[in-house]
Amino acid sequence: MMTAEAAGGLAIFRFRDFRLYVIGRLLWGLGVNIQTVALAWLVYDITNDPLALGLIGLAAFLPTVPLSLFTGAAADHFDRRKIVFWTYVLMVVGALALMALASQRIAWPIYLVVVAIGSARAFTSPAGQALMASLVPDEEYSTAAAWSSSINQTATIVGPGLGGLLYILGPTAPFAVALTFFVIAAAMAWRIAPRPVKG
Question: Could you tell me which residues come within 8 angstroms of residue 66 by beta carbon, excluding any fewer than 6 positions away?
C-alpha cells in the first residue's frame, strides 16, 4: 500500500509538461552516458592509446569553461524550451556523426564532434533546470527537483552499463541507441507548452 508521502511525491506527475520533461531528461541522460562509455571504447579500439582517452575527456570539457559565461544568461533571456530542444537536436546530429565515424573507424574527427557535443551539453543543464522550475507551482518545486535528481542519478548508474553491453553488439550499436533516445527526448521537449521568459 502506498504511503501518503509516496502518494504526495507521485502527485507531481499530474503536471503534463513535467512528465514530458522527466521522460526527455531520463532518455537524454541515458543517451549521454551510453555515448560516453561507447566513445571511450571506440577511441581505445581505434588508437590503442590511453592518452587518446584523456584527450576525449579534455575535448568534452573544453567548451564548458568559455561557454559558462553565456549559458546562464541564455537561459534567463531566451525560451528555455527551445534551448533544450535545440541542444537535444545537436545531440542527435552528434550521435549520427559518431555512428558514421565508428563504422569508418576514424579517430581524429571524433574530437571535433565531442567538442560540439560538449558545447550543446553546456547549454542543456542551466536551461533544463530553469525550464523545470517553470513547469510546476512554486510550492511543488522541491518535489520536482527531487524527482529530477533521481532521474539524473538513474541515468548515471544505468547508462554506462547499458553502453558497455551495447558496444558488445558492435561499435555503432550504442550510438544508434543514444540517437534514438535523443530523438525521443527532443520530441518530448518540443511538446512542452511554451512559457513566457521571466527575466
Answer: none
Q: Which amino acid is at 148?
A: S
Q: What is the mean pLDDT of the chain?
A: 89
| pLDDT (0 to 100) of residue 100 | 93
Higher local confidence (pLDDT), 186 or 62 = 186
Specify whether the CB–CB gap between 186 and 85 falls below 8 A. yes
Angle between helices 80-104 and 16-47 (to 10 degrees): 30
Question: CA-CA distances (angstroms) from residue 11 to 15, 76, 119, 147?
Answer: 8, 28, 35, 11
Beta carbons within 10 angstroms of residue 28's beta carbon? 28
Task: Give 64's pLDDT tier (boundaries 50, 70, 90).
Answer: confident
